[in-house]
Write a structure and sequence with these properties.
This protein has 6 helices and no strands. The protein is globular and about 40 Å long. It has one domain. The protein has about 120 residues and is mostly helical. The model has no long low-confidence stretch (mean pLDDT about 90).
């Protein structure tokens, strides 16, 4: 259970700062990702991603990763990646989002390959 807490840190810091970015500086966020029409929705997603990142960081500091944290980490990464892929293919968002999708896929792979999976499932 304690072997792969660093994955929680890695994804946590990535999510925390990615979510914080549009909250702190929307102008630079839109310069990279493209203009947005529903700023409130971008901020809502930013808050949620920041909170998820904070929770993952907290569990990294505690050096514990429970099943619920693994589900939160993998589920949020898969959900974001799926949404990004769908909307990039539909031509609704910039292809730059595929870089974020790549990060999400890397996190899912890291969680999947972590050797403490059986320990987590048995806790």
């Amino acid at each position: 259970m304690r072997k792969f807490f660093h994955i929680s840190f890695l994804q946590g810091f990535y999510f925390f700062f990615a979510g914080l970015w549009p909250l702190v500086h929307m102008k630079s966020f839109e310069m990279i990702t493209g203009p947005k029409t529903d700023i409130w929705l971008v901020r809502t997603v930013g808050v949620l991603v920041t909170v998820i990142g904070g929770v993952l960081i907290l569990f990294g500091f505690r050096r514990k990763v429970f099943l619920e944290i693994r589900v939160l980490a993998m589920g949020s990464a898969l959900g974001l990646a799926g949404i990004e892929i769908f909307h990039v293919l539909a031509g609704q968002i910039s292809k730059i989002y595929l870089l974020d999708t790549l990060m999400e896929v890397i996190f899912v792979i890291l969680w999947t390959l972590s050797k403490d999976l059986e320990e987590t499932l048995n806790d």
